[in-house]
Write a structure and sequence with these properties.
By secondary structure, the protein is α+β, with helices and mostly antiparallel strands. The protein is built from six helices and eleven strands. The strands form three sheets. Strands 1, 2, 3, 4, 8, 9 and 10 form a seven-stranded mixed beta sheet that branches. A two-stranded antiparallel sheet has the order 5-11. Helix 4 packs parallel to helix 5.
Length: about 210
Amino acid sequence: MLMSTLVASALFAGISIMPMQLAGTSHPQPARLQAPVIPVQALKSEGTTAGSEESDQTQFVPFPVQAQFETGDTWLSGGRRYRLYGLQTCLRGTSVTISPGVIRDCGELNLIVAQALIKDTKPVCTTIKDLDQHNAVVACQTTSGQRRYDLATYMIAEGWGFAAVDTSGHLIVPGYRVAEESARSARAGLWAYSDMPHPVAVLTGQAGAQQ
C-alpha cells in the first residue's frame, strides 16, 4: 500500500534538513486527525545493492532549530532555501473555510501545522540535489525505535501535504498519490474542509491560463 510511496521516496533521499523553531502565532490550530505512520524502506549502509556507493555516503542531519519556513514544504536556513522532495502544500493566497463564517489562508494554516509536525517528529534530512548555491531539494525521515519513516508521506497521510507534480503534470513520487487518497477518504487534515483549494489543481490552472 503506502510502502510503495516510501520506497520511492527512499530511493531519492539525500537531503540535509534541519529542525526549526516554531514562530509564535495567535491563530488557533484545527484538531489534527491521526493518520497511520508508514514505515519507509530503511536506508542502511550495510546490505546496500551494487551501485549504491552514493547511498553509503548519505548523511542525515537534524532539522535546523533556526529554520524559517516560507511555506509548508519550503524553508530557509544558513542562507539557503530547502524544498522537501515530492511534496506540495497549500498555497498562500488561497482560502479555506474552517468553520461557518471563519475563513483562513490555506497556505498559512498549512505552514503552521507543518511546523508543528516537524517539531513533534524531529526529522533528519539529507540533500538530494543542489539546484544552485542558494537552493536545494531535500528528503527527510523521522525515527521511531529502529524504524525510519518518510516525512513527506507522513504529512500527506495526515492531510497536511499533497503529491507534487512536475512541469509536465507527472507525479514526482507516484506512491505519494496512495497516501493522498487515503487522507482524502479519511477526511484527514485539510481534507476535512469541503472548499479546500487543492494546490496542484490551482497550480495547474494557473499554468494553463499562462499558455
